[in-house]
Amino acid sequence: MNAAFLTLPKVETDWKSLKLPEFQYTEWKTGFGLYQIQTNKKGLCSMEIVFRNGRCSEHKKLVARLTANQLQEGTATLKSEAVADIIDFYGAQLSIFADLDFTVIAMSCLQKHFEYLALFICDLICNPAFREEDLNRAKKFLKSQLQHQLTEPDYVSYREFTSAIYGQDSVYGYNTQTDLIDAVSPSDLFRYQQENYIADCMNVFYCGELNASIDILFQKIAAYFPLKNKTPKAIPEIYQTQIITKHIPIENCAQSSLKMGKRMFKKQDPDFFGMYLLNTVLGDYFGSRLMKNIREDKGYTYDIHSTLDAQVYDGCFYISAELNPEKMQDAIHNIQEELVGLQERKIPKAELELVRNYLCGNIMRLLDGPFQTMVFIKILVTEYGSTASMEALMDSILSIEAEQLRALAARYLDPKTMSLVTAGAV
User: Fold this and answer.
1) Residue 122 and residue 199: Cα distance in Å, rounded?
2) Average pLDDT of 15-26?
3) In this structure, how many other beta carbons lie within 10 angstroms of the beta carbon of residue 177?
4) Topology (CATH) of 20-224
């Protein structure tokens, strides 16, 4: 083969020209923001309703999760079977889930059915039944799921790690337990729904046809959700935690799962975007240093990665891997060496450029078409505060220097400041 074909040509890309496509934004008098993009796929549409609530708005633990779970169980006039039949009949997809900071109701369907289904979903959200028999069935499922999850080393190490990092009684650190599941009642769900599924903490993200009838439809949707002038939730209590080393034995496990890391900061911290790039270099893509060292060179694990897990009010950093117990100490030693290397030596120019291109390419992929773009807009608005955060992200990726990254590593990635939690082989 001609040697010329063995070398890929260098392609210059002007990443600075990467911008968000045009979108419409409307702030309704009832309080919520509406983001809209014209679809390029005629006949299809999607809508996500996002409430800023989640665990951070709970009056009782697990209420956010169970409220979201029970919204699909119907209204006073419709039971869960009827809800499922309607979604199936119209060929729609519906998901409702709550996390630490948000509840997301996501739907996609044919454009011709959008008005009926959008109003149907608003009725589910605003007029839930919360029947005791449905809640009991959900509790039984959660308990069974928890029993299974507690046999999985990766799940156990993560829940014990976050509990240690954030505090076992904090909104980000408490763990699902059977007694917490049992303690939730239908009245708790009604209270949470009334207090938190409101226009005050709501944004809507729509991709589809844009016309006068759609404007009228969103006026109808706006009428469902009251503006209660709710006082913003106080920032969750920040617990002071200690550095720990802990192993949780699990019967019949051949491997152990490792979580090594520390408390960090929220997504809107000034250092977040720099750490985002630094974390990618360390362990957040297939060519990362941890993958090359621990997986490719040493063969200690099939997968190892690092995560900058930032929330609205807090965050953490951790390295995760599943390892043969006999190789655990060697793997930890090599991980620590990689962390120290980032503190002591600047990232070579070629490696840094590779990661810049990788991250910019990811952002370009997120802007590939209106449906993907709207998902990216949702992330920017809900997690980073506004769509303007894309400019800050791009500027940081393209302009941050190797010495700045070395300084961030020295500030945040000292292995002596990190907790180590393992779970698995006895």
Assistant:
1) 12
2) 86
3) 13
4) Cytochrome Bc1 Complex; Chain A, domain 1 (3.30.830)
